[in-house]
Amino acid sequence: MTHAKYTVVQAYELAPLSLRTMSLLAAISAAAYVAYLLVRMVLPPANDGGVPYIPVHKTLQWMRRGAVGRYEVSQKLDRVYMQNTGIVKAWMFGGWAYKISKVEYARKLFMQTDVFQKVRIREMMPHNLGPRVSGDSFSFENGDAFRGHRAVVSPAFRRSWPTMLFKKSLSELMDVIERESAKPLDVLTWFRRGTLDVLGHIIMSYDFCALSDPDNKQRAMYDSLLEAMLHPIYNMFPWLDLFATGQRARQWEYLKHFHSFIDRIIDERLRDLENRPPLTEGERNHADLLTLLLESYLQSKSGKVYDDRGKQVTPLTREQLRSNIGLFYVAGYDTTANSLSYVMLELARAPEIQQKARDIVIGVLGNSRNAYPSDEQLKELGYIDLIVKETLRKNSILAEIRRRLAAPVTLGPYTLPKGAIVSVDTWSMHYNPEYFPEPEKFIPERFAEDQKSIPFTFTPFSNGSRQCIGMRFSLIEQRVAISLLLLRFEWSLPDDSPFWKSTPAAPAGLISPAGLMINVTPHIIAWTLRPSTLVLALLALVARVAYLVLVPPRVNDGGVPHIPALKTLYWTFKSRPSRMDLCTKVDIPALRSTGVVRSWLWGRWMYKTNNPEYARQLFLKTTVFQKIELHNVVPYVFRAVAAGGNLMTENGDHFKAHRSIVGPSFRRAWPVSTFRIHMRKLENIIRRQGAALDVLQACRRATLDVLGQIIMGADFGALDNTDGELLEICWDVVEAGIEPLYLVFPFLDKFPVGKRARSFANLKKFHRFIESTIDAKRTELLRRGKLSDEERNEADLLTLMIEAHEYTKVHGAYDENGKLLPSMNSEELRNNTIIFFVAGHDATAYSLSHLVAELALHPDIQQRARDRVISVIGDDPDAFPTDEQLHELADLDMIIKESMRKSSTVSDVRRQLTEPVTLGPYTLPKGAWVMVDMWAMQNDPRYFPDPEKFIPERFSEPNHNIPFSWAPFSEGTRKCIGHKFAMVTQRIVLIMLVHRFTWTLPKDSPFLVKPLTTTSGLISPIDLKIDFVARHKH
Q1: How far apart are CA 100 and CA 257, in angstroms?
Q2: How distant, in Å, are the alpha carbons of 92, 160, 347, 591, 902 from that of 942?
Q3: How do residues 150-174 score in pLDDT, each as one tens digit?
Q4: Which of 69, 178, 277, 986 suits 618 as a labelling partner, its CA being 20 to 30 A distant?
């Protein structure tokens, strides 16, 4: 047997190193690495023909002294070293790079894109946080990859940017500035919040609530993330992110949250886009950038997108999609906010230019606080564009524009090696007197069309084919914002401001005027008048108002009679008002012979009718009798400010669009279980007080809690809490909207003082509450995805509206003929929530109060209702109807309807004519306001015999009333969308009340003589007290 021979290698076991030895070796390694870095930093590369360099210690000194300003860095460091050469080497972003400031060098960088390539920042700083936000976007690609990216991304920006896109956020920003103007304003902070809200709406129809909620955690997280991206130390030494601790570690966590937030929205939009037909042209005009980007992305996946050379585009990855969204935010957020802050700074330093610009804006827009530029008006504000450009010249937000060389390049006597980083130093170039004479001066006229300029010297948005894709968007946003600022404010620097002498700012990255405080004063027109002139002017004003009120204007309407205004005003504001008195002593007698009269209301003369045939035309001919859009007619009125454009005020396609989102929320059952807990609380309140109960307040509390749960899924605790701030705000908002004085003279809302001013302040708080609720529900919906059918049946109305709103933002909304409808914005979603809340809350509470009063006056009918209820649900003390029993008791609606006939909560239904209309012998002119007087129609003996009597049986099936003579919810397609809910609520409350209690009016009640009520708007009882007696003992 042969044995194999093996070579035996002896293994030596190394002795374990001591802790001291290991520490020494680690220290030597660290020292060696530091020495290597120091050598790299101190000794710049020499293979370029001798380009001068800035010693690294000089750069670090200026980094430490950053508060002195980017201008000083430019003038005392960069230009000193490149004064004769136009090029210099400097240590930045963890290595040596070249800075250039000669225009011929810059031209090469911008135009020779195959050689001067974008820096792949993810490769340059692989461990740094900043590139993780937008480093995979098209902005950092080159060659075919860039062309492919651009082919996918650019369709989102090939669109118009109408000024109305910015209206909500910029108007809110102006209101915030006015509110905060009592002290020096940190303008950069507020501009950041405003631009974030603008971007949220335009990029992905998302409301960050950055302005309405100062403590918004998402905004704070986003600010911290942006701060992390621009941190100068981490950008100079990017490897430090390998050892992130403390705040830096938290910022890495914020990055994860930001990515997951973007991913959720992308997933939701992709699901919707994949399950619907392609967007139409009309849909694209209203879609947000994310929808357009994802549509293009899906087309690229199908091989339908080609670059500018006809090459099929490779689809983007998820990381690239997310990076492009991140880029849109970063590029559009801080850059625009910084630029607007610098505009305010420059105009504060140059008050004469500020006033010149203000005069131009007022000349175009007028001197109204509520003016807002249209697209055409913005074109007339060319001087604002000059101000923006000169501001960006003096304060370029981008300190430099970087490229990496794909091949050696010769710049003058120097040859820069392949792979070198080259950047255009925008500040050095913008302050070069050869290109811009007297560069330290602020001269907007240097950018006028008749002024010659040197190409490639003005580069705040880069230049050439790699110019910022969002430049037009940013400039339009700035023009609109500046015009509003000039219109509404005057401003100056505080006397002790450091910005008088310099412009403190970070010396690198995105340049911002950190710490800039501005004194802002609301702009007020001042007249210098003699006292006698002022008295005469006031007398003339009073005479003019008196003339308008007392003398109806001459109109060619065939001679429609009018009700004297003084008569209406007397019965409206008398000490013991009653809508029934106004109805029976003024309206019905005036309408008896003609069926139509002219009457003074809402600060104008309008037509009033109580003829059911005329009412039929008003209810059914909706293209002729259109809703009065108060937010457009009298935008300053409290009710218009409160709920603006909503389902109840819009017309035509806008109404259909609102109905498509809101309607499905109301097409559902209202189970009795929804009301049970609230009815128990209402029962307990009545039991506790019993005698002389303020029934209106009890009903308001009950309906507020019911609506809070059903509309918003919120617990207001109105039946539990009597002193909550939110309750006080709600009461104030509702009552202010129906204050008779302001309904008759709405112009008074132009000058709110005292209690009225507090009501406007409370309205803003109420808006913020609704908006924060919407934001929370939208965020939760995006997190959870689509609702199941079971979840949808149990969801509150606001959740269903938000789901429908999100759906239509992607899929669009269409009318019955397949026509694309306008989109509904977030402000309109808020407005619809408010109008349902207000209309459903007080209208139902008032109707219930009138019902309780009528049954107190008619105990026999009260007892018949009680017997009927007991026959169905029994007489157990805790009995409560089931859904089937509630349906069986539908005959109780006769009592409810008769109460609403005698005391309709809605006093009238108003419309505006879009063309002349004939009513009997009269022809009413186009533009006229026409109203159906509900009280005069429903209490007219011609339509309801013995109208003063309470006869529920007149609404029994055999007794058919004259069509359109009973319309407390309106009729036709504009009938109140919540009428079924209101009737169900009243029926349930009525069942509970008659089952648990008997009630009467106190002996001293004024209602025993006649009911006291408000006289306009929503009609509510005044000083209604009821004595309740419990039928069962608990």
Answers
A1: 38
A2: 90, 58, 70, 12, 14
A3: 888 887 777 778 888 888 889 889 9
A4: 986
The answer on pLDDT for 79 being more than 60 is: yes
**From CA 533, how far away is CA 736, in angstroms rounded?**
35
Q: Which amino acid is at 833?
A: T
Q: Which of 636, 477, 523, 637 is nearest to 178 (CA)?
A: 523
In the chain, the largest separation of any two C-alpha atoms, in whole Å, equals: 137
Give the full edge-to-edge strand order of the sheet including 997-1000. Answer: 693-694, 1025-1030, 997-1000
Cα–Cα dist 394/69, whole Å: 12
Distance separating the N- and C-terminal Cα atoms of the chain: 109
Q: Give the Å distances, CA to CA, from 587 to 7, 206, 225, 1016.
A: 122, 49, 65, 13
Full DSSP string of 41-62: HHS---TTS---B--HHHHHHH
**Which letter does DSSP use for residue 76 in this model?**
I
Rg (CA), the chain: 36
Instruction: Estimate the share of the chain in helix, then strand, then coil, as percent rounded to the nearest 5.
Output: 55, 10, 35
Contact residues for 74 (Cβ-Cβ < 8 A; gap 6+): 425, 427, 428, 431
Contact 690, 697 (CB under 8 A): no
CA dihedral (381, 384, 386, 392) in degrees, to 10, reads -150
The CA-based dihedral angle spanning residues 690, 692, 693, 697, taken in that order and rounded to the nearest 10 degrees: -170
- Residues facing residue 930 across a β-bridge: 607, 911
Neighbouring CB atoms inside 10 A of 522's CB total 12
**Which residue in the block uniquely carries the two structure tokens 């069926």?**
595
Separation of alpha carbons 1017 and 636, rounded Å = 18
Interaxial angle between packed helices 725-737 and 695-707, expressed in degrees from 0 to 180 and rounded to the nearest 10: 110
Element (H, E) at 909: strand 908-913
pTM of the entire structure? Answer: 0.57
Cα 325 to Cα 135, 136, 298, 916, distances in angstroms = 11, 10, 16, 52
- The full 3-state SS of 921-948, as one line of letters, equals CEEECCCCEEEEEHHHHHCCCCCCCCCC
555: its two tokens: 């109109």
